[in-house]
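Hello support,

Our group uses your service weekly, and this is the first time we've seen a run hang past the timeout. The protein is Glycosyltransferase 2-like domain-containing protein. I'm not sure whether the cause is the sequence or the server load. Input pasted verbatim:
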Amino acid sequence: MTTNTEDSSCLPLQEKIIHHNKTARAIEFVILSLLVSMLVYRVVFFRDQNHYLPWLLALVCESWFTFQWILCICIKWNQCFTKTYPERLLKRTSKFEFPAVDIFVTTADPIFDYPTYKLSLYLSDDACSPLTFYSLVETTKFAQRWVPFCNKYNIQVRAPFRYFTSKSTVLQDDSLEFQREWKTIKNEYGDLCKKIELAAQRPFTCGRKSDFAVFCDVDRSDHPAIIKVISEDTDLPHVIYISREKNPKYHHHHKAGAMNVLARVSGVMTNAPLMLNVDCDMYANNPQAFLHAMCMLLDYKNDQDCGFIQFPQTFYDSLKDDPFGNQLHNYYYILNGVAALQGVFYMGTNCFHRRKVLYGLSPNNKKITENVRYEDLHEFFGNSLEFRESAARILSGSNPKTKDEKSPSGFIEAAIHVAGCSYEDGTRWGKKVGWLYGSASEDVLTAIDIHGRGWRSAYCSPDPDAFLGCVPSTYPSAMIQQKRWSSGLFEALILALKGNLWFRQALAYYWLCLWAVRSIVELFYAFLPAYCIITGSHFLPKVNERAFVIPVGLFVIYNIYVLWEFKRLGASLRMWWNLQRMGRVTPITAWLFGFLSVIAKLVGLSKTVFEVTQKENKLSDSDGDTDSDSDDKNVARFTYDKSPIITPGVVVLLVNMTAVVNVVLRLLMVDCSEIWMHVLGLGVGEMFCSVWVILCFWEFFKGLFGNGKYGIPFSVMWKSGFLAFSFVLLCKRYF
Ligand SMILES: O=c1ccn([C@@H]2O[C@H](COP(=O)(O)OP(=O)(O)O[C@H]3O[C@H](CO)[C@@H](O)[C@H](O)[C@H]3O)[C@@H](O)[C@H]2O)c(=O)[nH]1
Ligand SMILES: [Mn+2]
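Update from on-call engineer: The timeout came from a worker crash unrelated to the input. Re-ran successfully.
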């Protein structure tokens, strides 16, 4: 990187701003001291209890909550924000000096403010679909017209499907020329959409000679590798379509396997030192995203040990106030907190990696080639000569690609070789090299390994957001995603956590990866109040005890604290409630099943599965303001399918309802003047908790009486009813 002696060259490309968050810390410590007091109270008064069981359970659960809270305090301690200055970068660095970037899996139009001849786009298609291939071909053609148009008029929203539908971008330029070109390009875009829609409606007639011949009668789970260079050496990025070889005899390792094939094919073809990874349901929302990332990656002084740059996961067209609690708002302070430690987690998409990081290098062994012999490279990276040479260049830090080398299509044969099923046999792929195997959250598994090698990472959140994606918009698909995450994260913890991480970074990973275990604690704690009411025991201090202020204080202060956190983010009261309640519902349903599936895998009953998130087709007709109130309410309503995932939640609800009904019946039978005494005797704390649990599960309550997809299916209902009934019966008879 040249630094001119101009003023601008002295200015930093990025600035880290650390907030110490003193008020938040103070409140967090108040909450912690209340939690500890509660534990002390439990231990001191253990002997005085008539019923040990609820007291002991409460002690265990609350110890866990305290542990979790300590993790939270450690993670949120400092909040780190990094500001990046692309203008300064552009002033000091000529376009020829920018590093090349290989883009993996992606949206239809990878168009950015970046020297395009430095970009290559690799699309991996695990479905081996001629339609995807066709769309990519047609979209590439369209891009040849669209990109110049964007550049000419400096258009910021570069995804045409957003540009032509959003209200904000009505013709900003009133020149005749612009109007004319705008109309033409809009029509062309309409044609493109129609073509693809038409193609989607009828089966592909794959003529023997056409480009589609390879897709003829192809079996999605058993076919040779298909690699096609759709476009190269134009003004646009190279575009390459890849459908890796599939064979039922080989495990394909889901997304991690696809990413490793992309890494190898791109290594052979273009070998860019940087790789950007985006999921197929994302689009680029900020044309300067690359420049922001470069500000961090090219900052020699600070960030030579920065292994990857993660952009936030934000979503478009998402439901208002986050009714299913899956839009990740509640991780804001956690993520900025981890950013102040070793660095934010890799979240599977919107992330720039240094290639050498994924090839297993550590920040201190800058030149691995000095100590690794050529045979060892074979053992690491497999038997492709082309790939080993490209990897050697990356590892030695020499020029990854020399000028006079061939275009991508010159490497098709080598690429097909490295995209084969058996290529990874006997190599370190998935174990030490590339994206790691063994967890459905391959992202976090890989990130733990990278951080464990001593790399740091950076969180880059420019305005507007760099990438926007889809979030599941129905309750069942949100749950499937949460289940996959909780199980995958737990597996990642089991597989990867070793002693090399920074201590507080390790704590952050514990916080993240223990979701699955949380489910058990949440489940027990939700049963506790009902159990106590039914059996006439207690797990909370009575109203006339002084210790009663501890749980009350905890409840009030904690909720106000979270509300205050949300208010600072500009979230609504409704969102606060939604996330609070989903904080109880999700662990007891989706995470619990995640936990069970990990256990099933540990005892050998099942294998890792990656249930792909349903991509609901949200058509752009929702951009009008015709959305009536009732529509809004209905999209936010819970829908149910036959999946048993909600069963534990329904059981919790039914048991707590039984308890409350029980209390009401008992009170109806006593004399009016004595009612208050009876209320006190039954336990105000327990009753309050039971009602609170019912409120948290209120959506399920509505589901008990809902119709069609809004109703809980009968099969789930009777199973839950049976379980709840048995629970109540057992409580009464044996405890
Ligand atoms: O066998 C597979 C399965 C998935 N994918 C791709 O993986 C990506 C993520 O899958 P998706 O179904 O969209 O899952 P999400 O829940 O949205 O994914 C989040 O969580 C995953 C980990 O569980 C991460 O890998 C993702 O990057 C992250 O966005 C998509 O681009 C898929 O095309 C494959 O290529 N092959
Ligand atoms: Mn997704």
